[in-house]
Design goal:
single chain, alpha+beta, GMP Synthetase, Chain A, domain 3, 2 domains, 3-stranded mixed sheet, 7 helices, 3 strands, 13% strand, globular, NIF_FeS_clus_asmbl_NifU_C, NIF system FeS cluster assembly NifU C-terminal domain-containing protein, iron ion binding, FSCA_dom_sf, iron-sulfur cluster binding
Length: 177
């Protein structure tokens, strides 16, 4: 039976902790041999995974969508989606909290434009949700920079059409006026 997402994340955290402890081993030759062994095993698994992906052309999207498998594909440079696609997909997952638009990906930095919606949401909460979603979908992104507001070139911000006291504003966000 497959692990739950939470169990998987716990195992990943444990594996990362064990790997980081390798550097603290006191015996240099033993540390080097353990590290070389791990690299050989991971490289062999990567080759196996590359062959699986070759044979599973029709299943690539489903494999990549699985969080654990997707991260494994990234480790072996086999993920079928570029970072921008994964970031945009992650932003779609937070749409319930507000609009989040990818402005650019520049190396390890993603710039995202935010517009919170509704009377109970905040831009800070939306920013945290965006950062969590982006780093989960694209672990190579080290920092998410956010900006607020409408896209450049927008003549009238959508939210200005829903000012308090207007029928549209009252119906659009459901907030008491």
């Amino acid at each position: 039976m497959p692990l739950t997402d939470q169990e998987t994340r716990e195992r990943v955290a444990r594996a990362e902790a064990l790997l980081s402890e390798l550097a603290t081993l006191p015996d240099g030759p033993v540390r080097a041999q353990v590290t070389d062994t791990l690299h050989a095993v991971v490289g062999l698994y990567g080759e196996c995974l590359a062959r699986v992906m070759l044979h599973a052309r029709d299943a690539r999207a489903a494999l990549a969508a699985d969080e654990l498998v997707g991260h494994l594909l990234l480790v072996h440079d086999l993920h079928p989606d570029p970072v921008e696609t994964r970031v945009r997909r992650a932003l779609e997952d937070v749409r319930a909290q507000g609009d989040a638009e990818l402005v650019a990906v520049d190396g390890p930095v993603a710039r995202v434009r935010l517009r919170a919606r509704g009377c109970g949401s905040s831009t800070a909460a939306l920013g945290r949700a965006v950062e969590d979603a982006v780093t989960r979908a694209a672990p190579e992104i080290e920092r998410v920079e956010t900006e607020q507001g409408a896209a450049p070139g927008t003549l009238i911000a959508v939210e200005s059409l829903f000012r308090p006291g207007t029928p549209a504003g009252h119906e659009a966000d459901g907030c008491p006026r």
